[in-house]
Amino acid sequence: MSAEISEKFDLKTLFHQYRRGSHKDYDLFLNILSDLQTKSEDLRVYLRTIKDNVTELSREFEDLVAVLLKLDWASRDVCVVREYQSLLLGLVCAHTYYLRASLRMLVKYFSPPIVKSDTEEVSDEIRQRQEAVFLNVHMVLKAILDSVPMSSTILMPLLHDLFPYIGKPVFVQECFVRNLLQITTYLPNGRQKILELITDRMLKLDVRAPRQNIQESEGDEEDMEEDIVFDIDIEQDLTRDLDNRDGSIYDKKCSDKPMTHREANILDVCMQLTLTYISNVCYSKGECDWEATKKLYREMLLVFDRLILPTHASCHVQFILFYLCSTKTPICEGFIDYLWKKVQNPNTESVFRQAAVGYIGSLLARAMFVPVSTVTACLDLMCQWVHLYLDSTSEDVVNADVNHHGPFYCVCQAIFYVFVFRSKEIFETKKGHKWAESLNFQRIVTSRLNPLRICLPVIVKTFSSITRMHQLAFCDTIIERNKRCILPVTSNGLGSSSVVTTLDSYFPFDPYLLNRSGRFIIPLYREYQGCIEEDQELSNDEDDFLPDESPSTVEPQSVSLGKTPTDFLHYGISPGFKHVQDIT
Fold it and tell me: PANTHER family, from UniProt (predicted)?
């Protein structure tokens, strides 16, 4: 049978007839190729015949190539799959003008044609069948990337263009991201761009899934009632406010349960895939692979610099860096040093300086893997910077001007925030109290720039309680005066003014709410726990204060940064990082 088919459809004869104007047999061959009922053995013979004549497939026979690229080959019998892979590789090697169309066809396989809605479980049978298809596609894609040098340049834009829309089912999104990560195993030079592509998509999901919306979707009626109670009682116990920031009224246990919030559910799946990938890269040998971890960190830091840091109000994607920092202490300290250089650089835009210090404060406060020695070193650096800033500030300054001194207030808020979270550990050290006295908090809080007026009230109040209890600073008089005064702040060069507001209460590493990916984060995450004395101070305080106005909100936006650092692991000579080993 095969011999008869091969003889009947001799391609050289068909091509010769086609060039002479006789298209009948040629068109019949195209119809047979595209017929889904064609038997696998017959199709294998056709593909072998075409492969033997692949050099003849010039642009004149684009319609034949188009039929080949539309074949549903990846799910056919093994004999057909192997023949097709060999044919496709020969085609793109012989005629590179078919390369883009061929790669496009392969990438489309990464988005399976699943019609099921997000609420329906995809069966194990479907998953196994799709895995077999993906394996067949990756085999030929790898061969093409190895054989055709220009293929990776063409592939990257296709991965971007064919990324499934956010409205596609979660299984489709999961498959595409999983296959993108699989590509990095045989295209290491393209890993940074692929990670950037995945991160960009996750950020789009992240800003569509605000923390409050997730909590409302995931919490049952009892949770919501408890939330209301916390809001009512918050002025009577400010510690509860910090606990509320920890999301203690919600179930934070790791779970495989899908998220109710649609975008959060897709984000959860993508974060789980990404964090699993990072774990496999960093711990491929059962223990931390330092060289692999360092390389991945550098790539992810570029992604952070270009995408994550400039994006306001993301809630979860930044935890990729949080998890990476947990792999090795030098990685964590390198990340802090990178952020601190941004804070110190006056040429960096103010909004990025403020965002960078927010990351420093949130990481130091929340990360279980950050030792108290690193915390004290960083607090030393930040307090020294604040004191130098106050030294350089004109004594004529009388207003709390957020527009002109935004980075200063953010550094102050980070200091207060970290000290509140880590004070218990600090005072448990042998010279903790003496060291805390050396920070000279009293000068900071009594300065003309009045950071207690600008920083988030709950942080100010808790910081005031702790410093009063340990006789480090006395903030109550200033807080009371701030309650009575409305301080003007110049908002433009024309002399107009507006009422000063608190800083944006955005802390990048606020509690992680996603279920499935949470298993990577929750064990590394610190929740706020005030000591008994502090709780008593807060509950007995007659000046409990939390203003009704909420911080001004900013629409999620992403803006491009300037030139990125060339070496993110090159440490400065700041005292807090002199003890770090050279890892470049």
Answer: RNA POLYMERASE I-SPECIFIC TRANSCRIPTION INITIATION FACTOR RRN3-RELATED, TRANSCRIPTION INITIATION FACTOR IA RRN3
Q: List the domain boundaries for the chain.
A: 211-577
Residue found by looking up tokens 């033997």 in the block: 52
Question: Do the Cβ atoms of 241 and 420 come closer than 8 Å?
Answer: no
CA–CA dist 302, 196 (Å, integer): 9
Find the helix or strand (DSSP H, E) in which 490 lies: strand 488-490
111: left (phi over 0), alpha (psi -120 to 50) or beta: beta
Q: What angle do CA 276, 315, 363 make, to 5 degrees?
A: 80
Q: Is the pLDDT of residue 95 over 60?
A: yes
Q: For residue 502, name the pLDDT band (cuts at 50, 70, 90).
A: low
| Cβ neighbours around 206 below 10 Å, total | 24
Please name the residues in contact with 552: beta carbons below 8 A apart, sequence gap of 6 or more.
501, 504
Instruction: Quote the CA–CA distance of 352 and 373 in Å, as a whole number.
Output: 27
Q: 272 Cβ partners below 8 Å, 6+ apart?
A: 516, 517, 520
| Residue 548 structure tokens | 């009704």
584, two tokens: 């470049």
Are 116 and 122 in contact by the 8 Å Cβ rule? The answer is yes
The CA distance from 244 to 231, in Å, is 9
What is the length of the chain? 584
Non-local (6+) Cβ contacts of 437 within 8 A are 472
- Mapping DSSP onto H, E and C, the string for 424-486 reads HHHHHCCCHHHHHHHCCHHHHHCCCCCHHHHCCHHHHHHHHHHHHHCCCCCCHHHHHHHHHCC
Closest CA to 525 of 238, 272, 322, 359: 322
pLDDT interval class at 534 (50, 70, 90): low
CB 583 within 8 A of CB 569: yes
Identify the bridge partners of residue 498 per DSSP, sorted by sequence position. Answer: 489
Q: How far apart are CA 534 and CA 239, in angstroms?
A: 9
Report angle CA 56, 61, 63 to the nearest 5 degrees: 145
Q: Which amino acid, residue 109?
A: Y
Residue of 563 and 498 predicted with greater confidence: 498
Cβ-based neighbours of 548, under 8 Å, separated by 6 or more:
none
- Which tokens is 293 given? 């971890």
User: HEC profile for 53-96?
Assistant: CHHHCCHHHHHHHHHHHHCCCCCCCHHHHHHHHHHHHHHHHHCH
Looking at residue 228, its pLDDT comes to 31
Distance CA 503, CA 410 (A): 8
| Torsion, CA 449, CA 453, CA 459, CA 463, rounded to 10 | 60
Tokens of 181: 């990560």
CB atoms closer than 10 angstroms to residue 68 = 24
List C-alpha distances in Å: 32 to 37, 43, 131.
9, 9, 28
Q: Which tokens hold the place of 519?
A: 């298993």
Distance CA 73, CA 76 (A): 5
